[in-house]
Amino acid sequence: MLYSDTNNSPNSLIDKSTIVGNYHIKFKDASQPSGDVCLFSSYSFTETVDEYVYYYLDALKKAGFSIAFISTSRLKDTCIAKIKQYAFLIVERENKCPDFGSWKLGLYLLDWCRKFNSVLLANDSVFGPFYDLGKIISSMKKKFDVWGMTDSYEVDYHIQSYFLHFNKKVLSSETWELFWKNVDITLSKQEVINRYEAGLTKTFSDAKFFIGAYAYVDVVSKVSDHRDKNVNATLAFWKTLIRQYDFPFLKREIIVRADINKVSWHKGLYFNMGGWRKLISQTSYPVSHIDNFLKNYYGHIKQTQVDIKLRKRKILFLTHNSEIGGAQRVILNFISWFKTQTDLPFEIISCLPGKNQLLPEFEALSNVSLFYSLSDHDKENLKEKLIEEQIALIFSNTIVNIEVQQFLSFLGVPQIVFVHELSYVLNAFPQIGRNIEWLRRNISHFIACSNAVKDTLIDYLKIEEDKVSVIYGFINEDAAVNKDLRSALMSELGIAKEAFVIGFCGTFEWRKSADLLPVMAATILNIGPDIHIVWLGADEGRELYQSVIFDLKKAGIKENVHLISKQADSRAFFQLIDVFVMASREDPFPLVNLESGMAGKPVICFQNAGGTEEYIALGTGRTVPYLNMVKLSDAIAEYYEDRHLLQTAKARIPGIIKANFTTEAQAPKIFEVIKRFYDVEELMLIESPTLTVMTHIYYDDSWEEIKSKLKQFDDGYNYFLFSISDACFTKKRIIEDINQSFKNAYCLVTSNIGKDIGGKFALIDIYLLLKIKSSYLVFLHDKQSPQTLVGEAWRKNLYKIIDFNNYKKIIRIFKDPKVGIVGAEEHIINEFSGETNTFRFNNDYIQSLLRKYNISISDYHYLSGTMYWLRASIVERFFSEYNPVSLRANLESGNVLDDFGATLTHTWERMFCWIATNYGYSIKGI
Amino acid sequence: MLFRNILFYRNFSFADYNWAADHAYPFAIPLTAELLHNKAPLFEALYGSKYNFCFVLSRELINASHEKAALQSFAQELTALLFLPQYIRFKGNHLILMEADGKKDASLHAFKKELAGELFKQGITKCIVTPYNEPAGKEDLKDEESPIDTSLNDYLESNGNKPSFDSLVKNLIAPPALSKIWIVKTERQENLHSKIQSLHQFEKQLLDNYPSLAGFAAAYYDKEETISELTRENENLNLKLKNHVQYLKLLKENAMWYVHEHARLTQEVQLLQQQSSSGPGQHTHEHSKLTAEIRKLQQASSFADNSPLLTEIEALKSNRNTIIEWYNNEYEVLPIWYKRFGHIIKVITGKRTFKSLYKKNNSTEK
Fold first, then answer.
1. Helix (H) or strand (E) run with residue B234 in it
2. Handedness of CA A841, A843, A849, A854 (dihedral sign)
3. Which of A70, A403, A741, B300 is deepest in the core (most CB within 10 A)?
4. DSSP tag of A475
């Protein structure tokens, strides 16, 4: 008899060997299978079997196994019908001791598989196979009696149990039957791992069977980023295994455990789990099976785990600083485009100190960490934050960020560098020269902003040509302007309307040829009496500045040469000039060429001085021999004498710019490069608490500040509830903006009752009504407190809770389950006097409400200002009992101030904290 | 859309509420106990909708809410829905209609007062609660003129004995009907569609036959909207200005406290100095403590850059300027035309004679 039993009840058990628990045979094939058998253990979250399991079963069947499918969950009839295509036996059993319990049951039902040639124990904890299992099996079974895919030193040395193969010799042994009969299905999960997973290898090794693994951790660890072999190889070396060992499986744990990347962080090891999709897509495996499983799994767990989110991996953009400059402008333009055109999450790091004129623009796009201002302790915090965020790619705007890139290399993710440097700058930064080898090994791809940069890079780093793409720098199309800005600048500089103006631009330094300005000017001004020269970017603080002024005065040409400092908006300058001279000795691909082109002005540059020649090759100007003043003068004279040439240029060049050098044209090219290293379809589960931010808005001018801060928290999962006071003049515009800007937002137009407390009561009502699930609530309002001298300082302190840089800090504080409220520490106060048993303000109301709501506490500290994070459960518990709208009806109307007497509104400001304290929670400050 | 005071009475259905009709007419939605029972989906549907709306309270709801506790509970249920940005404000008032079953009912009038009282507690101080289909007459039951007009609906619904177009126009495009809400009743989706078409026809006919009346109606609505908006803004401005009076009073007190505290501390320091010069330095600690307190006070109240006082004064200035600017831009302009138009309205509504207007203008010119 092949099947030992068809039913089981606890009462019929006789001895331990037959303890297999309750089970039900759903299907058994009448035929008598023989040969190789696979006992496949499975668990389903939703009573259905995912496609990836069928794929695995199919591969096992094709590898010659007869399959017994044992599930520790109920299965729908449709699933049973489908599994029948692969399995000769289908059993449902109680969910107890999965895997080992299921395998024991299978063996028990199949008379310990004595009649089979071999047994494979497998389960659904892996995706795959990505490669032909048949080849691996036929090769391995020749060498070993007992073998698996991977081994491990965790607990004790053992072969990992998700795939275990035993040959006939083992099946015929006493050890085999004895081992399985002794499996106790009542043990806990950890005991099963300790006793059976680790114990199995020892048992069969002691019995002198040959034991082996397809990929030994000793071997794999040697070719990986870290050499620690006391880790789970399928987690720590998953990428190396698949990429270098044609390993057929990926552990499901990698996809479903939100904290999987940190399992060995206590050892300083971070496992980057990103990029599985791209890697597996290179095999014949249908990666959609994993995508679908992940979505199904998320759909299942989100019902109970509100803190788990399914989202795409994050990209980290690096800018060297936030000053006005070409490389900074390009990355800013790109990120703006990226934000509007994709749904991919990202953060920004500003690496080096600078004037930060562009910082607000960067901050408007995302959270910006100022790396240069971080202490060592802060850097460690940043590391942890980035690990939690599971960064998948680093994109740096220049090669000079190398030290930050090295710092970030622990992430083990692809790094792309947009290079804007030629040899002069490369040599000026010793950290680049010192780390050529590091750059070669760790930078996945370079983007050069011109062919000149590409050639320099290949020569300098000795890298392969295909590791560098050329994407020219670009500007936004709004650089074009129809308004006349020229006249104002002309009159400001004292230049006559009919003058012919030559423009120069650049920092006042040698590389930009600022030292040559007097010579160039003296030559150019000979062309005609009405010629003027304007240099944009001449900073008086620069060393060269006074020397140049000295020469200009001595040459008697000071009146016709105008030096102006860097401008945030340089469009007036480009309107003013007739011809633009790019006089740099070396410049990779100056954006000012493009800006002049957008204004329809031709460019003249020196040959062999960088990427400008490539731009001029499109018919946008002239090149002259390097530092040849006569030829430069001739080229300018050509335009001076033939104004028709200028007209033609004005008609043609803006079109060239729009077609080739705008963000719309170039940003998609950068994104294509990014997509070579980043899979836009790859999703991951991440543990990130869901927030509901409840904001009350009263003032007309507060919205922009609040919006810019709250947008940082808008990850598509958090909720934003707004109560806009009916008295707010700008409410209509704010509501429109909220509905356009926030993903999950609701607005109420609330009447003027109880100030922000009344607003919050109305929002709590909505929160409970809509059954929004959050871990924390954030109370917020646009506090201005015009009645005091310190209102501004209060607001700044209280707004710490919506500074995104404090986000992780607050979450960490809440890791202590006793903490109920977190807010600005300066605002934690206590007005209770133990001596008189009274409160300094609102005493009567407070005593009455404490009695009414049975609040009996000894610590009356509270967070004044009613802006803080609090556990959602506190509000849910209290206000499910006491209707917030009913409480709202008792609050005062109008301009509620407690300076003129006690108010219920101000009493409730204190009550929120005491409700939390009454539930056993504490208040913590940041 | 010429007539901006048309309100479609339409049964609410989750399935087709956002049915993409090519119109911007708002809806009056019969609010039943069943619908209120599904408040969460109702809230979401209305929030996500492009249509403005108001409620018509069903008799069943009204009858069930006569008891005080029930009424309070009902008002609380209603509050969140009234706070939706799309809820209709008619001349600045939340508009709540009541099903009158086509008959006079004293209890209905009692209910509306009680409901308005409960909503008042929620700060909904401006609120019109009125039966929408109550027949005329029995003036003793009326405490104000109904803001509802159903004659357009009657015209669109009547088949055989349809009133003449001319008489309808004469009745509608003139006060008081022009300033009322015209309810148009629809039963089903198709009915709504055909009613909208009929309305378009009506508007076209009006534009063709009475272009100046149509122009007058359009101008009337423009001005009504502006008046209503500016009236609300004026109320808010008054509120904010009153608030600022309180703020200034408190600031003054605050500033005085600084002055007194400074004087007190300085006096104490002097006293300590006198004592320490005559004896050993036992007061040095207290002296330095007091000096530090004075310094802190001076810093807080100094006019140095970034001092809290200066920042606060700047904030106040900016706040004041915003209000003044708003007043100058938006409200100062009001009297020029407001007076003129206001007088015309008075003439139209019969509160003033055209003659008196003429006389006054003449006398002003003289």
1. helix B211-278
2. positive
3. A70
4. B
